[in-house]
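Revision sheet: structure tokens.
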Amino acid sequence: MVRISSKWFALLIVSTAVFLSVIDLFIVNVALPSIQAGLHSTEGDIQLVIATYLLGYAAFLITAGRMGDYFGKKRVFVGGILAFTLTSCLCGMAQSAQQLNIARFFQGISAAVMIPQSIAYIHVLFPIHEERIKALGIYGTIAGSASVVGQFLGGMIPELHFLMDGWRWIFLINLPIGVPAAILAVRCLTDTNRQQQSRFDTSGVLLLTATLVCLVYPLIRGRELGWPLWAITMLLTAFLLLGIFIYDQYKKGLRQQQPLINLQLFKFRDFNIALGVVIFYFMVQDSYFLVNTVMLQTGLGYSSGLTGMLFVYQGVGYVVASLLSIKLVKRFGKKVLQVGALIMTFGLIGHRLLFNADMQPGVSLYLLLFVYGMGCGSVLPGLLTLSLKSIPAAYAGAASGTYSTFQQTAVALGVGITGGIFFWSLHEQHTTMAYLSAYQTATWVNIIFLLMVSVLLYWLPEE
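Predicted:
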């Protein structure tokens, strides 16, 4: 299937997709205050920088997986890489927050196009189970490393003003990575067989996209504008569209028309509980970076470079724990995730106690961030495994796509809800004490979400 001497080199090529998509999320997290200053944008605008990327990703992920089956994985993979590179350049050249967020939405769609093909190629490259497990481990390690590299570069690059504002380079650096990866993919990978029987649920994609936009956009922008009538109307419309979407998927399932989301999955109790865990966990994940980035840089006056270095401690803790948890989950099951959720909870309590107007970087802060990262790394790697453990093999692909869609949607919701509460709590005051007060409130919200994670993990059966 592959025209190259080493399938391990091919693995590096397809892993470029996850490296680009992960690094781009984390590099933006740390650079948000620089982007806000550079574009003279509002607080809602910088929330949307994260949310629009995730909405595009979530809405098109399942359809993009089917595109690989229908058009051939190589063609779609190369197209996704090039589209991601192009939209990254458009982000870097944006002259307004609106232009940036439109480009971010299409960048998210591009990420959704390339990621399923990269994972599918691993199964093509490594038909032997033992080698495939090793390859997936390398793939996951690359993703974890990308998060650490992204946090570091997101802090350092905005401080480098060469030819243009520094923050623009966080998007433009994808160009020298994406183009060579696309060229190597064209030359080194052989296309897979096409499955022309695959169908696209176009109306399902449109309904899901409209539902997510009507839910997340007013959560972010409505708070900023004092909840005008259109924001309330959009929120109500979101629930109406959700009902229509569910009915549409149900009818297509009865007619065996390959709906976007197979509602039969929700007959499995374990899967439903696990999706609840996914929602509350991922509502914390990125909102944590949002409120901490703004708190450290805008509230306490830390430089973006120092903030990026601090988050590296969190990232290293995540990578270390994730490598350990893969083995521990096999032995201890959900207990590993429960311990991780408790570590994260106490970590956030530690954040509330440590953060103050006179806080200086030191051993206590480094250790706190590292331990919090250990908690994240204890939960996340085993979450997909536990979510799919009771799903029959015939439903595994659909369940994995649904899991990822819920994951990205939850991150966007967390940015809207926790981030919105943080900015609302500022009451348009921009003193250090106002930021600390808002930070305390927003962190309590994330603590509540983590407690919900613990409760749902308790309900999740051991076997």
